[in-house]
Amino acid sequence: MISNINYKIRYVNDADKDFWFSLDKHLSVAQFEKKVRDRQGYILSVDDTPIAILRYNLFWDNTPFCTMLYVSQSYQNQGYGTALMNYWENEMQSLGYDLLLVSTRADETSQYFYRKIDYIDCGALDIVNQATELILYKRINN
Predict the structure, then answer these.
(1) 37-67 per-position pLDDT tens digit
(2) What is the pTM of this model?
(3) What is the pLDDT of residues 70-113, one digit of tens each?
(4) Rounded CA gap, 123 and 140, in Å?
(5) In which element (H, E) is residue 61 found?
(6) What does the alpha-carbon distance between residue 59 and residue 139 come to, in Å, rounded to a whole number?
(7) Extended strands (E) in the chain
(8) Are 46 and 9 in contact (CB under 8 A)?
(9) 3-state SS class at 37
């Protein structure tokens, strides 16, 4: 579905800080630096212009958990989110993981995106004064 074949995915680095924080309003500077150091964040660029981010951590210190996927508004619904998720899934598989987690708020449409790419609902977290957080998983074969 991606019409532009000139896209690249790479690890986030310090030079990406301004772009990263233009999309990610939830991460602290210290955690951004940790994502850079631990290689737990990615940038997707089109024609050398960054347009999307993905970050993750290890739930229970052993299960990759995508905590943020965001594609710039004008590039949404063009396959870039799927490309970024596929990249992350393949990397996690190459590192020996076989189970992945994602979450999204129940009032966000991304839940439909995750289900479309084969993630399955497995739980929810109710937080006071916030929409329910849906937890989804996907098994990947090694």
Answers:
(1) 999 999 999 999 999 999 999 999 999 999 9
(2) 0.93
(3) 999 999 999 999 999 999 999 999 999 999 999 999 999 999 99
(4) 19
(5) none
(6) 15
(7) 7-11, 41-46, 49-59, 63-71, 99-105, 120-125, 133-139
(8) no
(9) helix
